[in-house]
Amino acid sequence: MWRVAVAGKVTDGFMEAARKRLLETGVLLERYDPYLPEQDYDAILVFPDTDLSLSKYCCRILIIPDELISDGAIINDTSAQCVISYGLSPKNTVTLSSTNDGKNVVALQRDIMSLDGSLILRQEFTLDCDLQHYETMALASLIAISGVLEQ
């Protein structure tokens, strides 16, 4: 079982979509509570509106939106072995190549580490969902690290 936390103001729709996609992967998805004592997670997914000053993120894989990377503190204050950025810039690890009526082509622009420690090679894959762009990229990041890619 892999423990994955989601930090920030995440919608119920995102949590439902993520749990459905990750149902048979052994991923336990939970909301991150910065007020609890420091906890170890296999991965933490950070949403754009997250207050980074509230806690230290202890995990092997940190998934963070591009707009928070300018705050280098989170990168320096993490135990993560792999940091995955997501956003609409070609500099991000995970970005959208195209989107049309819920049919999204996601680009994994660098090799990343999966939850089981294997290497996920850069590639493009489709992801059908009706989430907002940043939620779509966040979901795609979770799918990629779990090893469940739609081809």
Can you walk me through this structure?
The chain has about 150 residues and is an alpha/beta fold. The protein has one domain: UDP-N-acetylmuramoyl-L-alanine:D-glutamate ligase (3-Layer(aba) Sandwich). It has helices spanning about 10-20, 65-70, 75, 135-145; strands at about 1-5, 25-30, 40-45, 60-65, 80-85, 95-100, 105-110, 110-115, 120, 125-130. A 5-stranded parallel beta sheet has the order 2-1-3-4-5. The chain has a 3-stranded antiparallel beta sheet with strand order 6-7-10, covered by helices on one side. Strands 8-9 form a two-stranded antiparallel sheet. A hairpin with a 2-residue loop joins strand 6 (about 95-100) and strand 7 (about 105-110). Helix 1 packs parallel to helix 4 (about 135-145).
Provide the structure class.
Answer: alpha/beta
Residue runs with pLDDT of under 50 for 5 or more positions: none
Question: Which topology does CATH recognise?
Answer: UDP-N-acetylmuramoyl-L-alanine:D-glutamate ligase
Look at the structure and name the CATH superfamily: Mur-like, catalytic domain
Text of the CATH class: Alpha Beta
**How far apart are the first and last residues' alpha carbons, in Å?**
24 Å
The SSE order reads EHEEEHHEEEEEEH
- What integer value in Å does the Rg equal? 14 Å
Into which percent range does the helicity of residues fall? 10-25%
CATH architecture: 3-Layer(aba) Sandwich
Strand order of the largest sheet: 2-1-3-4-5
